[in-house]
Amino acid sequence: MAEFVSRTIVSLPEALLEVFFIFLAVAFCVALHFVLQQRLRSDVLRRHNDVAGYLFSAVGVLYAVVLGFVVVVVWQKYDASVSNVENEVDATADLYHAVDGYTGASRSRIRSDLARYARIVVMQEWPAMAAGQRISWAAASQLEDAAYRVDAYSPRNWKELAAQQAAIADMQRLFDARRQRLVQAVPAVPAVLWFALVCGALAMVAFCYIFGVENRPAQLLMTAILVGLIGLLFVVIAEFSTPFSGSVRISPEGWQYFQQRMHAVR
């Protein structure tokens, strides 16, 4: 079932909007650099290239380490979120199968709770996570009802006892996976870290302005490349820090597949 869960949805309009904002940042920084070039003499700036180059290398290495570390962390979170969604869907499907050992009435009630839970996750929780909104208690209530019925069942033989033990284990996995999904829906990069990243980016761009280069168009091109690369990495960080929202997000296809297949389970 993993092939239906781990797909990544790419929203082209949102992605193009992000590219547009990167282009605006590049245009603004290059235009500002062009204005400064007209006001500052290149030969005066070249006198300080040795010192500025040494400081730029030190700051650049420090900023590259921090920026690369943040990119790796948010990518690991995104990858963990994909795996966790798979675990939640798998736990629900396993529980749906495990209660087959229950009597007809109890089995039907638990499976109805799971079916409603899957429907609420797809129809309500996924859009809410994509919009960054608060998650309602509807799905949690359905899960609590199913857990109560699983625990309250009185097995009459060894087969039903084994089914109950398997169902309890699957229910615990389901609760844990759901809790992890809700935690992972929260942005992974705090505001103070964003502040540090932005300040570092401004420092890197400022160093480009104080270098003196005879070929000024080439210097403007280097500024554009630097700003564009930093802007692109900022977009990557923003997208992967929120796995269920933005232009790149995890699809609910695993839940949809479960909904299609659960009626075939006897």
Description:
By secondary structure, this protein is mostly helical. The protein has one domain (2-264). Helix content is 77%, strand content 2%. It is built from 9 helices and 2 strands, in the order βααααααααβα. The protein has helices spanning 12-39, 42-46, 49-98, 104-131, 138-152, 158-184, 191-209, 216-240, 253-261, and strands at 8-10, 248-250. Strands 1-2 form a two-stranded antiparallel sheet. The longest helix has 50 residues, at 49-98. The two termini are 19 Å apart.
Helices and strands, with pairings:
Elements lengths: L7 E3 L1 H28 L2 H5 L2 H50 L5 H28 L6 H15 L5 H27 L6 H19 L6 H25 L7 E3 L2 H9 L5
Antiparallel strand pairs: 1-2
Helix pairs in contact: 1-8, 3-6, 3-7, 3-8, 4-5, 4-9, 5-6, 7-8
- What percent of the residues sit in helical stretches (DSSP H or I)? over 70%
> Based on DSSP secondary structure assignment, what is the total number of beta strands?
2
Question: Which sequence of strands runs across the widest sheet?
Answer: 1-2
Summarize the biggest pleated sheet. Answer: 2 strands, antiparallel
- The helix-and-strand class reads mainly alpha
> What is the beta-strand fraction?
under 5%
